[in-house]
Amino acid sequence: MCSEHITNNTALKWHLMQSDISGRASVKGITLSQTMIDIVRMSPLNWAGECLSLGVAVCNHLSRPLHKLCLSVQFYQDYNNGVLSYKLDNRVATAGNNKVVLSTLPESEKAYHECTVVFLTPGEYKIDIQCSTTEPMYEPSVKESEHPSIITPCSGEISHVWRFIPPVAISLEGTTAFRTVPSLVKELEHNSSFQCPQTSEMRLKWMKILKNRYQVLDWSRSKICSKHFEQKYFDSQRKLKDNAVPTLFASGKVEIPPRSKVDRLLNKLSQAELQSDIKTSLLRLKEPSNLDVFVNDDLKCKPDAPMEAKLWLMVKKQDNLNIRLMDLLIQTKKHVEILQNNTEESRTVQKEQEQHVESLKYIVKCLQEKHATLEEQIEILTAVESR
């Protein structure tokens, strides 16, 4: 997957409200993981989808028949954050009715409905199966004449809903896409991605070309777009040949906005000179005596505050931030020194341990030689005694 395409088609802008300063940011050199690639990359056209038959059977276990019973089957996606998405027109296609109305369902009788579903994209889907009726749900011992306060539902008003719990969950894996427009199909065919080569010889060739373009290249996961290969590297079935090398790349020139005169002069100054100049300039400026009057408790200027007060508040914020950063830098340097000292101590201890191990090895060697000498002497004494 080429980060170059993402860089060319991504425009990041930033804007500071108080100072009214804006600019642009670039994502050049971004490294994408496999999960990010699957999200960004257009899925290849493998197959349009397989039909799935969905059958629902309901049974009336009440002691009386049900009238005007509506059976509905609806697909949705649960984002596991309290949000349910029922707008799946581009993800699920249903052949047949997903909602049927039964005029009457007698007692202990069953009803069966079946439809066909095609999933167009992979993902996690759930099925909301429910039955609803507009018939009033009274207890057998309750009569409407005995309870005139009972209000009869209006026409079309749902009186009771039975829902299948827990909902049926369907998980679809793999990369599938469904496109009916010929131009989109053609685009998919000609803009596919290919794995990096596995042989060391081809990797070396690729590395010579891509070393100045990508800082990190994962040979097992990275993919290269087909736009970077010449037509001679494809066979009749648009498959990449074994000797294919990506050679088609746009010019590496990046449009850099022209810098102003102030930016050029600031870049020439060192950090110490810049800090000294800022301190000198702040000493020359006079802070307003009533600055606290124009500042709210949330450290923001009031609407009627003059521009001078707003600028001084920004200067104080920046100064406070610089002090914190300097303190953090000093602490970081101390930590680095402590780590360096610990590293040196660890190296010294390790060196001493290695010397101690060498001494123990020498002692063991001497004992082994002495043991061998004693064994020889024992053998000689045993031979002498036997004579």
List keywords for this structure.
single chain; 387 residues; alpha+beta; Immunoglobulin-like; 3 domains; three-stranded antiparallel beta sheet; 13 strands
What is the gist of this entry?
By secondary structure, the chain is α+β, with helices and mostly antiparallel strands. 35% of the residues lie in helices and 21% in strands. Pfam families: Ig_TRAPPC9-Trs120_4th (PF26283), THAP (PF05485).
Q: By helix and strand content, what is the structural category?
A: alpha+beta
Write down how many β-strands occur, each being a DSSP E stretch of 2 or more residues.
13
Oligomer: single chain
The low-confidence parts are 139-156, 175-190
Number of helices, where a helix is a run of at least 4 consecutive DSSP H or I residues: 7
Global mean pLDDT: 78
Terminal residue distance: 89 Å
CATH class of the largest domain: Mainly Beta
How big a fraction of the residues is strand? 15-25%
Tally of separate domains: 3
Could you tell me the CATH topology label of the largest domain.
Immunoglobulin-like
CATH architecture of the largest domain: Sandwich
Largest sheet at a glance?
6 strands, antiparallel
Helix/strand order: HEEHEEEEEEEEEHEHEHHH
Specify Rg, calculated over alpha carbons.
39 Å
Q: What proportion of the residues is helical, as a percent range?
A: 25-40%
Morphology call: extended
Pfam families: Ig_TRAPPC9-Trs120_4th, THAP
GO molecular function, one term: zinc ion binding
Protein name: NIK-and IKBKB-binding protein
Keywords: Coiled coil, DNA-binding, Metal-binding, Zinc, Zinc-finger
